[in-house]
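A reminder before we start the practical. When you read a complex entry, don't treat the lines as separate problems. The point of joint prediction is that each chain is placed relative to the others, so the output describes one connected object in space. Small molecules and nucleic acid strands, if listed, are placed in the same frame. In the example below there are two entries. Take a minute to note the order of the lines before looking further.
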Amino acid sequence: MNGQIIELYTDDDMARMRRYIKRRSTALVLLAIVGLAACLALVALTNTANARRMELAAVAVSTVVGWIVLYGALFAALPARRELGHAGMLRRERRQRAEGTVSLTDESFTIRKSVAVRRVLVTRGDEQSRFLVCGSRAEALAAADPAAVYVCHGYVAAYEVRA
Amino acid sequence: MRALKNILSQLHTFVLWLLASALFWGWIFTFVTDTSPEKKITVYCDAPQVRDTAMAVALEEHMPEGLRMVKVHAFSYVMFDVESIDKGDVFIIPASHLEDCAEFLAPVEGQADGVKIYDADTGRGAATAYIQYADEDYYLFLGSGSVHAQDGAALAVAREILAMR
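Here is the predicted structure of the whole assembly.
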C-alpha cells in the first residue's frame, strides 16, 4: 500500500520541545534564585526585635517558592524532558511496520521515570497486536485513522495514512 | 482539578520540602541571632513569665561597647542544657530557688546575697514591665561563670535592669 508516512514527532516538534524545556527550566531557576535572594534579604534585615517574624517569613517564602519550583519541575519540565528523550529514541531506533485497523483503547498509564502512554490495538483478520503510544500524541493518531503504524520497541513512532 | 490531583500524587515531596525549609531556616536563624559568649550578655530569669524579646531590645539600647547582643531567657529555656546556664552573665532568681542555683551565682558589687530586684510585700520592683514575678522576693546576681565579670559589661547590664521600670 502506498500511503503518506507521518512522524509522531517531527524535527519542528523536537525543536519546540527543546525550547519549551529551556524556557521552563530557566524560569524555574530564576524563581528559585529570587526566592533565595528574598530569604537572604530577610536574614540581613534581622535584629533582636524582629527575629521571630523574620524567621517565619523566611520559612514561608522558601516553602511557597519551593513548592512552585517543585510543581513546575515535577509536572512541566520533567515530563517534557522525558517526552523529548522518548521522541529521540523513536526517531533514532529501527522500526517495524504493522498494518491493519488501528484503534485506541482507554487503557492508559505512566511508565516509571518515562512518559504517560495509551494502549493501541492493530487488528488484521484474526491477528491483534498491542502497542503503546505517547499520551500527548494518542488523539492525533486516532483522528488520522491510519492504515498502518511504524513501531519501535513497542511504541508507535509514525503512522501511514491512505494517499 | 488536575493541579490538585498532581499535588496529591506528590504530597510527600511537598510536605518534605516544608519540613526541610523550616529546619534549614531555623538553623540559619539560630546562627544569625546568636554569637559567642564574649560578644553577648545572657540574662536568665526564673520568673513565671518573661517578655524576653522586648526586654532584650530595651537592654540593647544601652548596650556596653564591644557587645553585639543581649539575650534574655526564661529558666525553662535551659532546663535541659546546664552547660549554657554555666555561662550566664546575669541571674534573676526567686528567694525559694537561691540554694538550688547557688553554684551559678556570684555577688553583685560585693553583695553576696545579691541585689533585691522585687519585693513581694510591697509589690514593687524593677523591670516589672518585662517580668511577671511570682509572689516572693527576687534577687539579681552576676553569673559565677560569666566571661564579662572582669570587663564590667555584666555589671553594666545588671544596673540597667535594676533601673528598668
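Discuss with your neighbour: Chain A has a mean pLDDT of 93. What might explain this?
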